[in-house]
Amino acid sequence: MKLSKLGEFGLIERVRKATPKGSGVRVGIGDDAAWLECRSRTFLLTADLLIEGIHFNLQWSTFYGLGYKTLAVNLSDLAAMGGSPAYLTLSLGIPVDFKTEDIEEFYRGVRFLAARSGVSLVGGDTSAARRFFISASLIGHCPYAPVLRSGAKVGDDLYVTGTLGDSALGLELLKKRKGKTREDAAEYLVSRHQFPSARLKAGALLARERLARAMIDVSDGLLQDLNHLCKASAVGAVVWENALPLSPAYRTLAGQKRALHALTGGEDYELLFCTRRRDRSQLEKIQRRLGVPIARIGECLPASKGIKVIDGGGRLASFTVRGYDHFKSRP
Amino acid sequence: MKLSKLGEFGLIERVRKATPKGSGVRVGIGDDAAWLECRSRTFLLTADLLIEGIHFNLQWSTFYGLGYKTLAVNLSDLAAMGGSPAYLTLSLGIPVDFKTEDIEEFYRGVRFLAARSGVSLVGGDTSAARRFFISASLIGHCPYAPVLRSGAKVGDDLYVTGTLGDSALGLELLKKRKGKTREDAAEYLVSRHQFPSARLKAGALLARERLARAMIDVSDGLLQDLNHLCKASAVGAVVWENALPLSPAYRTLAGQKRALHALTGGEDYELLFCTRRRDRSQLEKIQRRLGVPIARIGECLPASKGIKVIDGGGRLASFTVRGYDHFKSRP
After folding, report:
1. What single-letter DSSP state applies at residue A143?
2. pTM of the model
3. Same domain as B121, residue B192
4. Of A71, A106, A141, at which residue does a domain stop?
5. CATH number of the domain that residue A312 is part of
6. How far apart are CA B194 and CA B265, in angstroms?
7. What is the structure's pLDDT at A330?
8. What pLDDT, in 10s, does the model give residues B70-126?
9. Who among A32, A46, A325 is closest to B9 (CB)?
């Protein structure tokens, strides 16, 4: 059915009916505002935009996958603060010739991950638009003091969860093959791009144990996000190319540009964090409970040293620290 | 300066610097999420979309006015629950050829109303987009139990704050004159369209005194919003056309279609609420403290009666209860 037949209020009613009333939700979808419970004295709030043709492409994304990813990228922001996700709003701009089924598929993707991560969809807005876009806000509880970007000190160890570069390489493969992948390795990378895992458990544990002094999620690319963290903490950093955690699939398919995606490719949604050197043994002790492997990839230097990458031969590799900037034209 | 020169991170840095750190904000713009204080055990959350060419037109809107209105329409949602506004996120999709100055003008409009209403801008997102759009989320404290749409009972009085139809008539005048107005009356109506007042004081007092049993803000048009309220409360209603509060400017300029805009025109951002008949005298007593006049415009009927309008001659007027539906094509 075309959306223009169901109408805006028809769509909202369908979404409302399909949405379970979650924990802490006194009033969800359908009033002027949602009425929500706060578990402690503070909470976290993050917001993300996803726009067709910029953040995603319907040629190689499914509506279900988009719904999943919309929530995942917001979960990742909360993970990077050590928060516990709770309430989601979704505002959608939808072309009027879209099918109702596609939008419902989008919400199914959201609901799947919402159920798994304890998130309740509590409101939002919908409107006609020329291009499909999604604006999400996610609120999280603070069981522990949040980990900011600004707490890193010179000499701190630099760690990252999981593996890097998978998502960027997966997207590259998707574009080439227009959605059709055959090999297992390629499928793995594509799934890392389409269904990223937010590191909620790791983020919460690192906050609880007060091990992470500064933390950020890797959404724009390792060097770009490291740059954000270093700026906020007024430190520099060195990254050892040899220490970058790469998945077997990535090693198989990355070819010549082996370090490139791992250093600059976006959308990994892993956590990058700094710890005191003397906490190494404690970090090793809790490692299994993080739910994801971690790798020590470098350390914090004085701010005057900037951000350096040392390549496999011990040489200083030159990388421009630049991730995606939406308003700047690219070479 | 073109936005493409300043870049996304340049823009965010400018907005961050110009934004005062507000009350209750532990971490605002610039980390993975904002870290915010909760004043009581619950809070309110609302979200609104504004899209160029659908919700506004840059031919007859200023960037400053858009910033102001973006916050105003969200404040109005909180007013309708009796809430107290606190934290705002703004996600903007911006065409890359926009001027930096225009976007800063937009934020100035937001900041002006934010300062007046105790709101802190704490985050959001920005991206390039083909058309300008704004997605806002606003969080409010709950000093009193929120007033829902669902509490109206048969026999309740129906009240509205302020005057109706000004905004729709103001927009009509704006379109005709392409932004140039001369008469005082027209200027008044245009300002009602461009700089609506959210009825925060009235909403909070009606919640505090437990006078409003059901409440909604008039954003889609009186009959449409009354329909939302009646559906949520499972009642019907009668509205007396003669009792509709009309401004002198509206009376001067509305011409033949006198009741039309007042009954169906959107964006008045007045409060529509229901009270027990026996609370009339108490309502009169606190009337001055509401900060805005109120008018008794009808009463709640059994659901089977639907929604009726009685015209000046005591006849049943026929109005299709239909406000704006973004996905439905219009006749």
Report:
1. S
2. 0.94
3. no
4. A141
5. 3.90.650.10
6. 14
7. 44
8. 999 999 999 999 999 999 999 999 999 999 999 999 999 999 999 999 999 999 999
9. A325
pLDDT bracket for residue B331 (50, 70, 90): very low
Q: How far apart are CA A162 and CA B39, in angstroms?
A: 38
Residue of A31, A32, A97 to mutate, interface with B, max B Cβ within 10 Å: A32
- Return the higher-pLDDT residue of B324 and B326: B326
Chain A residues in contact with B78 (beta carbon < 8 A):
32-33
Angle of helix B100-117 relative to helix B63-79, nearest 10 degrees?
A: 30
Q: Which of A160, A159, A162, A185 is nearest to A255 (CA)?
A: A185
Tell me the nearest-neighbour CA distance from B164 into chain A, angstroms. 19
CATH code for the domain of A101: 3.30.1330.10
Of B113, B141, B169, the position where a domain reaches its end is B141
A180 and A49 in a common domain:
no
Q: From the CB of residue A10, how many other CB atoms can be counted at a distance below 10 Å?
A: 16
Inter-chain CB proximity A129 and B54 less than 8 Å: yes
SS (H, E, C) chain B: CEHHHHCHHHHHHHHHHHCCCCCCEEECCCCCCEEEECCCCEEEEEEEEEEECCCECCCCCCHHHHHHHHHHHHHHHHHCCCCEEEEEEEEEEECCCCEHHHHHHHHHHHHHHHHHHCCEEEEEEEEECCCCEEEEEEEEECCCCCCCCCCCCCCCEEEEECCCCHHHHHHHHHHHHCCCCCCHHHHHHHHHHHCCCCCHHHHHHHHHCCCCCEEEECCCCHHHHHHHHHHHHCEEEEEEHHHCCCCHHHHHHCCCCHHHHHHHCCCCCCEEEEECHHHHHHHHHHHHHHCCCEEEEEEEEEHHHCEEEECCCCCEECCCCCCCCCCCCCC
* Closest by CA position to A212, among listed A94, A83, A324: A83
Round the average pLDDT of chain B to a whole number and report it.
Answer: 92
Query: In total, how many domains does chain B have?
Result: 2
User: For B10-43, how does the pLDDT look when each residue is reduced to its tens digit (9 = 90+)?
Assistant: 888 899 999 988 999 999 999 999 999 999 999 9
Task: Tell me which chain A residues have a C-beta less than 8 angstroms from the C-beta of B41.
Answer: 37-38
What is the value of ipTM here, to two decimals?
0.93
Answer yes or no: is B275 within a domain.
Answer: yes
- The alpha carbon of residue B140 is apart from the nearest alpha carbon of chain A, in Å, by 9
Copy the structure tokens of residue B213. Answer: 């049993």
Domain that holds residue B299: 157-317
pLDDT over threshold 90, residue A312 = no
Give me chain A's average pLDDT, please: 92
Residues in B touching A148 (Cβ below 8 Å): 27, 31
